[in-house]
Design goal:
This protein is mainly alpha-helical and 113 residues long. α1 crosses α3. It is built from 5 helices and no strands.
C-alpha cells in the first residue's frame, strides 16, 4: 500500500513541479524517509518516485522536446496532458508493480528489509 501511495503522491507532485531536478530533489528524500518509517527499503522507495516522475509529462513546458512539438502545432496541451495520464497509469504504476519490484527482488534488493 505504501508503494501505491508513493506512486500517486509523486504523480501529484510532478504535476505541480515542472522541473525534473526540482521534483527529484523534493520527492526522493521524502520517499526514502517514508520507506524507512514503514520498514521498506529506502533506496527502492527513492527509485519508485524516480520512475513515477521521470515517466510522465503533463504539459509542454516540462520537456524541451515536447515544447518543440507543441510550438510547431503537432500536439495540443490537452493531448500532452491525456498522454501524461496514460503514461502515469502504464509507464509508472504498471512498470513499478509488475517489472521493477520483482526485478529488484531477483537481484537481491527486496522491498522489505
Amino acid at each position: 500500500m505504501v508503494v501505491v501511495v508513493l506512486l500517486l503522491s509523486s504523480s501529484v507532485v510532478r504535476l505541480m513541479i515542472p522541473n525534473i531536478t526540482g521534483f527529484l530533489a523534493t520527492t526522493i528524500p521524502v520517499a526514502m524517509s517514508v520507506g524507512t518509517a514503514a520498514g521498506l527499503n529506502p533506496v527502492l522507495c527513492g527509485l519508485i518516485v524516480t520512475i513515477a516522475g521521470d515517466a510522465v509529462l503533463y504539459y509542454p513546458a516540462q520537456s524541451a522536446s515536447s515544447l518543440v512539438v507543441y510550438e510547431r502545432g503537432h500536439l495540443g496541451a490537452g493531448e500532452i496532458f491525456r498522454f501524461g495520464i496514460l503514461m502515469t497509469a502504464l509507464g509508472a504504476v504498471v512498470v513499478v508493480l509488475a517489472v521493477a519490484l520483482p526485478y529488484w527482488a531477483v537481484i537481491g534488493e527486496p522491498l522489505t528489509r
